[in-house]
Specification:
The chain is α/β, with parallel strands linked by helices. 43% of the residues lie in helices and 13% in strands. A six-stranded parallel beta sheet has the order 2-1-3-4-5-6, with helices on both faces. The chain starts with 5 loop residues before the first strand and ends with a helix.
Amino acid sequence: MKDREHFVLIRGLLREARHWGNFTADLQQHFPNAIISTPDIPGNGTRYHETSPKTIAGITEALRQQIDSSQPLRLISLSMGGMIAIDWMTRYPDEVEAAVLINTSARLLSPFYHRLRWTAYPHVLRMIFHSAAQKETDILRLTSNLHRHDNKLLKFWQQWQQQCPVSKASARNQVLAAVKFSISTKPQQPILIVTSQADRLVDCRCSLRLAQVWDTDYIQHESAGHDLPLDEPIWLINVIKQWVASNFV
């Protein structure tokens, strides 16, 4: 009997499983027999009481402890989550069958002013002095193009932040881990790289560069923001579904 598909969804900085929004349920509808796991990074979500590791490798180890990898995994990852996915498939190739990397980047392949667009610097600096609730407003407006003024969604995000606040130590460690992450070797598994041309946080050239260096499958959305699963979940799922069908018959 063929193993059930097992998708593992990995978010990025300061985000938790609930930030996948409708994407998780929509993905399940398109892959009704699949297992879908949404583990939280230590320091975020259900694990907010823990302190995040200072390295991507440390975060990977923490996520692996939450996942049954008795059958090959297919990782769907966003932003810093893409760095975790790359590390996971590189160091544990027998556990990962394939990966989708969305709006991610890596040191050495892309300059710092592409990994964090220079136009985003003022917004990020202002966040340091904002309240926790205001930070959620800042994050939504910076990462989403379609929902940036969605007050109903913002209230949910602010509520989640109150329920599971990310400590300053965890936030610092996650930023440090992302900044330090670099790629040593190319993973051998099939990879789909997806990017948003209108991403206002990370320059889309980071994803394009990664796809060129690794010679992987690549697709670009023209208008979605950094949080592509939030802005265009059905488009993204259809892309993933077509890619899976062409690579895993």
